[in-house]
Amino acid sequence: MSHNCDGHECGSCQTGCPENIDEFMAAMNREETLGRIKHKYIVLSGKGGVGKSTVAVNLAVSLALAGNEVGILDVDIHGPSVPKMLNLEDHRLESTGQKLIPAEVGNIKVISIGFLLNSADDAVIWRGPMKAGVIKQFVEDVDWGDLDYLVVDCPPGTGDEPLSVIQTLTGADGCIVVTTPQDVALADVRKSIKFCEKLELPVLGVVENMSGFVCPHCGEVSDIFKSGGGEQMAKEMNVPFLGSVPLDPLVVTAGDKGTPYVYNYAKSAAAQAFEQIVAKLTVPIDQKAKEKKHMLIALPTSDGQLCMHFGHCEKFFIFEVDPAEKKIIAKTVVVPPPHEPGLLPRWLHNEGVDLVIAGGMGQRAQGIFAESGVKVVVGAQSAEAESVVMAYLNGTLETGENVCDH
Predict the structure, then answer these.
(1) Crossing angle for the helix pair 229-237 and 183-198, to the nearest 10 degrees
(2) Which of 7, 48, 67, 295 has a 20 to 30 A CA-CA distance from 325?
(3) Whether the predicted pLDDT of 65 surpasses 80
(4) Could you tell me the pLDDT band of residue 225, with boundaries at 50, 70 and 90?
(5) Sign of the alpha-carbon dihedral angle for 150, 132, 75, 204
(6) Which pLDDT band holds residue 283 (cuts at 50, 70, 90)?
(7) 236-263, pLDDT tens digit by residue?
(8) Lowest-pLDDT range of 162-176, 188-202, 332-346, 376-390
C-alpha cells in the first residue's frame, strides 16, 4: 500500500515521502517520540580513546542533577561503555509489547546495545545496514517519555553510526566534539567538524579532555599530552570552545566503579571543569527561548533555596518560562564566576537573562542590570527556587526589604 503526497517532502516525515504504510507509520512514530524530547545533544570524537563516553555520561548526569529528565542513547555498537559507567552491566532490556523500556538511574533513562548482549565480552559483528536499523529502533521503538535532554554517545569517527544518528534525530541541537590535546587527535577532530558541516548539524563546541594530569598527592597539573591544542583548533575552525578537563585519577576510579565523577567527586578538578562546560552548553538554548517569546528568570540559590545575598550564592538557577501560560519550561543550574564587583550582572546579561529575583542586592548591581535592560525584583523571601518563580508568574510573590542594600 502506498502513501501519496504532492511534493518532494511531506509533513509527516520531513525527510521525503515514505514508500509504504510501514515506513509511513515508522515516520509518524519517530516524529511523535522526538516531539517529546526538548533537546538532543550528539557527542562525537574523531578517534577512540579520548574519553568521549566519559564526557557523554557526565554531561547527562550533570543535567540530571540540575533537575532535568535526561536520556542517554549509547550507539557505540562495537564498544558500549555506558552500562559500565552507570553500573548497569547486568541490566537486560524489557518490553511493554510495543516499546522497549529503558534502564533507569534516578531521573536518567538509558538505552545501550550492551543490554542486549549475553556477556560484556560478546562481540557484535554487524554490517552497516543492520547497525542503522538498530539505531532507528532505539529511537522509534523505545519508551523515552518526556525528556528535557537526550545525550547520544556515538562511536568514534564519521562512519555509519554517527551518520544514522544524525539522519534519525531530526532537529538535534547539535554535536559536542571531544578531543585530547595532541596533534594526532586534533587532526581527526577537524574531520568530525567537517562531517557535521556537510550534514548541516551545528557544532555546539569542542571539549579538550585529558588536558594536563592532576597529581593526586600535591595537586600540581602536568601537561602530559600538551594542552591548549583543542582551544586553538576550535578557534581556527570557527567553532565554540567549551573548556578543558584535566586527567584526574578520580575520573578513572569513578568510571570503573560505575559512579560518575561529577556526582561522587564534585570537588575534584575534573568535576569543577566539567560543570563550567555544562553551563556553557545550556546557554545557546536560551536564545531559542527568546525566539519563542519565553523569558529567562535567574535566582541566586544555596541548597536549592533562594539565597538572600545576591553576590554570595553557590549557584544560579535559570528558569525558562512561558509568562502567558504561567509555566516553567526548563531549568538550568550554573556556577557563577568568582565574585568581583560588577561581574555577576554582566555575566547574567550575557547569559540572556530577562529577570533576576533576589532577597537582597546592592545598588551598583541594580544599576548595571538597569543599564542592560534586565529587570530586578528584590526583597523576596527565602524559599524553594521553583516556588519563587511560580509565585512571580502567578502574581503572588511577596517582597519585603532589600536585605543587602549596599
Answers:
(1) 30
(2) 67
(3) yes
(4) low
(5) negative
(6) low
(7) 888 888 988 887 777 777 777 777 877 7
(8) 332-346
Looking at this protein, which amino acid is placed at residue 286?
D
- What's the rounded Cα separation, in Å, for the pair 13 and 196? 22
As a whole number of angstroms, the distance between CA 151 and CA 59 comes to: 8
Three cell numbers, residue 160: 555509519
- pLDDT at position 68 is 86
Q: How large is the angle between the packed helices 21-35 and 128-140, nearest 10 degrees? A: 60
User: Domains in the chain and their CATH numbers?
Assistant: 23-285 (3.40.50.300), 292-393 (3.30.420.130)
**Integer Cα distance of 50 and 12 in angstroms:** 39
d(CA 51, CA 255): 10
C-alpha cell at 66: 540540575
Is residue 356 within 8 A of residue 365, CB to CB? The reply is no
| Count of residues in the chain | 406
Please report, in angstroms and rounded to a whole number, the separation of the first and last CA atoms in the chain: 74
Q: What is the CA radius of gyration of the chain?
A: 22
Q: Where are the beta strands (DSSP E) in 273-354?
A: 295-302, 305-306, 315-322, 327-334
Q: Which residues contact 169 (CB under 8 A, 6 or more apart)?
A: 34, 40, 42, 139, 150, 152
Q: Residue 391, exposed/middle/buried by CB under 10 A (0-12, 13-18, 19+)?
A: middle
Q: How confident is the model at residue 128 (pLDDT cuts 50, 70, 90)?
A: low
DSSP secondary structure string, 4-71? --SSSS-TTTSSS--SSHHHHHHHHHHHHHHHTEEEEEEEEESSSSS-HHHHHHHHHHHHHHTT--EE
Nearest to 140 by CA among 167, 107, 104: 167
Report residue 276's pLDDT band, with 50, 70 and 90 as the boundaries: confident
Handedness of CA 259, 260, 266, 271 (dihedral sign): positive
Query: Using one digit for the tens of pLDDT, what is the confidence trace for 134-178?
Result: 778 888 888 998 998 999 998 887 677 788 888 888 778 889 999
- Residues 38/330, Cβ–Cβ less than 8 Å: yes
C-alpha cell at 68: 532535568
At 206, give phi and psi (nearest 5°). Answer: -110, 135
- A 10 A CB-CB count for 132 gives 18
